[in-house]
Amino acid sequence: MAAIDSDLVLKRWKPTDPARPPGRYAVKCEGARGLYVRLFDTGAITWVFRYAHLDKQRQMALGPYPAVSLASARDMAREAYAHVKAGRDPAAVKAAASEADKADAARQVTFETYATAYMADRRETFKSPKQGKLWEATLRDHAFPHIGSKLVNEITEQDIQAMLAPIYNTKRETAVRVLQRVGDIMGAAIDDGTRDKDRQNPTRRDAHAHWRKQRNRTRKGTAGRRGKQPAVPVADVAEWFAVLRGKQGMGARALEFLALTGTRSGEVRAATWQDIDLQQRVWTVPVENSKMSLDPNRQPHRVPLSDAAVQILESIDRREGVDLVFPAPRDGALSDMTISKVMRDMQAAEIKAGRAGWLDVATDRPAVPHGLRATFRTWAAERGGVQHEVAEAVLAHAVGGTVSLAYQRGNYFEQRIQVMQKWADYLTGKQSSDTNTDPLATAIATLRETGLSIEEIVARLNGDNVVRLSRDAA
Known about the structure:
This protein is an alpha+beta fold. The chain folds into three domains: 7-105, Integrase, DNA-binding domain (Double Stranded RNA Binding Domain, 2-Layer Sandwich); 111-217, Tyrosine recombinase, N-terminal domain (DNA polymerase, domain 1, Orthogonal Bundle), CATH 1.10.150.130; 234-437, Orthogonal Bundle (hpI Integrase, Chain A), CATH 1.10.443.10. Helices cover 47% and strands 8% of the residues. It contains 19 helices and seven strands. It has a four-stranded antiparallel beta sheet. A three-stranded antiparallel beta sheet has the order 5-6-7. Helix 4 (111-121) packs antiparallel against helix 5 and helix 15 (388-394) packs across helix 17. The longest helix is centred in the middle third of the chain and has 20 residues, at 172-191. Residues 220-226, 401-409, 433-438 and 467-474 have low confidence and may be disordered.
């Protein structure tokens, strides 16, 4: 029977046509062989492409008629025939293209849509409903306005930086949380194919190293370790400390301990009872929590505990199974924000009472926890008569270059015991804050406390760069 060569034949065909009963019939197709049409006794008509691949006869459906016209069927047959001639299986090629189309469609999802589904899927994994709400608030306030309408597969490192820019310098801890949470969501998108694996996670740390470095350079004068931290004035710190002691809560006790020891917030928050020796009155800060990174002889930082510091530790009710000295309500570590909030609340109360509060002398900005180290350092230099190296040792600062550090093995621990008690007495009001102290007499007293003889003190003070001093003065 002659091959079908026009739509007219198919339009007129009926299952009862004796000249062309239901079955498979060849279709004339210039440039390709293997195009057929199947006529069913129900009256349905479909296109089929028959071919041989790897010595096996195969066939591939091309769609129903008239949804697929004769012209379209011929185009598809030519394309399939080209694959056969090239040694490819056209059915496999079609299936792969279909999967690619599905994957491409799956990637046409915005970050907000995907993040909402992600949150709904893992809602039961949060420790509490509050944690889930915090996640949602973080994304709603800081992520969605910037990347919510963007396709997950098209979000770039630059988009992440634009998202962080408004809060990076002013709300650093919030910025870190936003980055972590968006990173978790993007990681899940890569795992399930919503984002191409070769595109990587745009929140990865190495992608933003230069950007962070540039932003940190502009942070001078703002809170953060790269700018000067606002400090409580030395003349006011005893008053400030008295107000602090009246505050309740673990955050207040941690801040009180921080002030007495001259340590960093992270060191206090990570302190454990196994690091504390109350009998020897020593707190040993592990190397991993210390920041004396320049010291080639780096050792755990031993902090002498004053009477006031010991009293704080003895007043804390230890929780069973919790080794942290200052645990959060759920037994984890306190956040840096918790300690900072204590100072902010104290400042807010002062302002509400019509007073200026505790403002940094240089910047006129409210003091922050890290600034208490500057308060101690100023007191040590101006009122405490503390030797420079000893004061720096209290703050766990490495003094000198690499060579001098290699030879300097001491840590002035014995001297620091006296300094920390003296500092605690000043904070608690036991030591007068009178500024009319003879600095020379203070310096001599400090030198004598180190064990130097009168002759050695005179020799040190009678150097070429100082005024001559008689033995009677010493």
